Amino acid sequence: MKFALTLVSTVALVAAAPAFAAAAPTDPQIAHIAYTAGNIDIAAGKQALAKTHNKMVRDFAQQMVRDHTAVNDKALALVKKLHVTPQDNPTSQSLTKAADAERAKLAKLSGAAFDREYINNEVAYHKTVNGALATVLIPNAKNGELKSLLQTGLTLFKEHQAHAEQVAKALK
After folding, report:
1. Tell me: the pLDDT tens digits for 77-119?
2. Contact, 45 vs 61, CB < 8 A?
3. Count of domains for the chain
4. Where in the sequence is the domain holding 70, given as residue range(s)?
5. Residue 34's domain is classified under what CATH number?
6. For the whole model, what pTM was predicted?
7. Contacts of 162 (CB under 8 A, 6+ apart)
8. Which of 69, 61, 65 is nearest to 118 (CA)?
């Protein structure tokens, strides 16, 4: 149950893989997927800030909101500069649907149960998104500036995953 979002996200990315194999995602699709993934983590962080009283969880959630907002702002500036319109796609839609379900589940929890579920989901979510960045999004990005932004994001998001893993250990 803890890793429901990971499973759904992984299934969404794997389900999209045959389409990507037949026709690699375009830069507008990649931009939309990356931006959507960032927005999902911003929303999750805001939900955590509204519910948790645990300092470690609050600090982590604040970092997620701050860092993902900064990366998404850079992504928006880049697509504007390149005159590219991010293109909605089944992967973005699946990620959003899974995140909505996870937020609804988290909304029913409180205290330590909320903290553990939120952090475990953050570990799983970052693993999934980092994997997608490394194996699908970055390799298929054609524009050098987009690829560079995704690589910078991957470095940062790997740090998020490690931070989430540390908090998860402390919450056990």
Report:
1. 999 999 999 999 999 999 999 999 999 999 999 999 999 999 9
2. yes
3. 1
4. 4-171
5. 1.20.1260.10
6. 0.87
7. none
8. 61
* Lookup result for tokens 């800030």: 49
106: Cβ–Cβ under 8 A, 6 or more apart, which residues? 44, 47, 51, 114, 117, 118, 121
| Structure-token pair, residue 128 | 């999934």
In the block, tokens 């908090």 appear at 167
Report the amino acid identity of residue 37: A
Q: Which two tokens stand for residue 144?
A: 């050098």
Joined together, the tokens standing for residue 150 give 């995704």
Q: Which two tokens stand for residue 145?
A: 């500036």
CA pair distance 85, 28, nearest whole angstrom: 6
* Residue range 110-163, pLDDT digits in tens: 999 999 999 999 999 999 999 999 999 999 999 999 999 999 999 999 999 999
